[in-house]
Write a structure and sequence with these properties.
mainly alpha; ABC transporter involved in vitamin B12 uptake, BtuC; 14 helices; two-stranded antiparallel sheet; two-stranded antiparallel ribbon
Length: 330
């Protein structure tokens, strides 16, 4: 009788932990949403607040899409913040020449940095952490030197450029539309294409991926190019919104966006993740930031403390789940 009760309790505990592992990010998001509703009432649902919240998460969310691909494939990318700054500066420099030169210049710059990261990692065997840390330092230096640590204004006469960061389509901010479209494309790539399956295979077990005939080096280079392009998209939206390319743009993104992706449910060791988790993770972090701003008398440093706690909980749950599954197999 007693043994039966113990086994029953173990089943309940295991079921609860498995449920939290699979649905934990969604539970946290719903809890934060309900708390915001109770604490701020109609203030939280004001159109201007919801619009600002969505616009804010859309910029970091674009960069998070690329980081999600990288982590799923077993890599790391610490260079997104600095690449964002360089892409924004390039876009601002090219803005007097028109919409397409400015946008293409920013995207090509991001892709070039991603290509550089991928080549160094695959051809020289340098670990992703060290490679992208070096790229981060170098790119930040380039951004600061481009205009002697000063911002470069966007040509305000080019309304099509500023529209990207400040415009609306049917009362929906353009940055949010760009984020949603990019997220849908990323979801299709990750779930419906051979390239997406290759990312998961490499992140899950690189040796098995080689036996499956996947071209490891080419796939890794592609994932870093995608990360660079997503970062460039975030830079384009940010620069268009601020009206200037800023050399310190994206500071702090390198760790916080990785934390956002992991909080959203992507496994830190790679091989497991969902693009929908990017949306959940960015909403969680966005609502936390929004709550701190609405309280008004709380230090913004609490934001980093809360992010850190959520990240630790997410990693602990992932570690427990992996150990539990290993025990099951034995």
């Amino acid at each position: 009788m007693r043994n039966g009760m113990i086994k029953h309790k173990e089943k309940i505990i295991n079921f609860s932990l498995d449920f939290l592992r699979k649905n934990g990010p969604l539970v946290v998001l719903v809890s934060l949403f309900l708390f915001s509703c109770a604490a701020f009432g109609s203030r939280f649902f004001q159109l201007i607040n919801i619009t600002n919240l969505l616009r804010q998460i859309s910029i970091s969310g674009l960069a998070a899409i690329g980081i999600n691909f990288v982590i799923i494939s077993g890599g790391r990318d610490l260079s997104v913040g600095a690449i964002c700054a360089v892409c924004g500066m390039i876009m601002a420099i090219l803005s007097p020449f028109g919409f397409f030169p400015a946008i293409i210049g920013g995207l090509v710059t991001g892709a070039a940095f991603g290509l550089l990261n991928g080549i160094i990692i695959t051809k020289f065997g340098i670990p992703p952490f060290i490679t992208t840390l070096g790229t981060q330092l170098g790119a930040r230096g380039v951004a600061l030197l481009m205009n002697r640590e000063l911002s470069i204004p966007v040509d305000e006469t080019k309304r099509s450029i500023t529209f990207i960061g400040r415009g609306f389509v049917f009362d929906m901010p353009v940055p949010v539309i760009i984020f949603i479209v990019a997220l849908i494309i990323a979801y299709i790539i990750s779930t419906r294409t051979r390239l997406g399956r290759a990312f998961y295979a490499i992140g899950g077990n690189e040796e098995s991926a080689v036996m499956m005939g996947i071209r490891i080096d080419r796939t890794k280079i592609l994932v870093y190019i995608i990360s660079g392009v997503c970062t460039a998209l975030a830079a384009i939206v940010l620069t268009a919104r601020l009206g200037a390319g800023i050399p310190v743009a994206g500071e702090g993104w390198d760790m916080t966006i990785m934390a956002t992706v992991i909080i959203g449910g992507t496994l830190i060791r790679g091989g497991v993740g969902d693009m929908r988790g990017v949306l959940v993770g960015t909403l969680i972090c966005g609502i936390i930031n929004n709550m701190i701003n609405m309280f008004g008398n709380i230090s913004t440093y609490w934001q980093n403390i809360i992010y850190g706690l959520l990240l630790l909980v997410a990693v602990i749950m992932q570690t427990y789940s992996a150990s539990h599954q290993a025990l099951k197999k034995t």
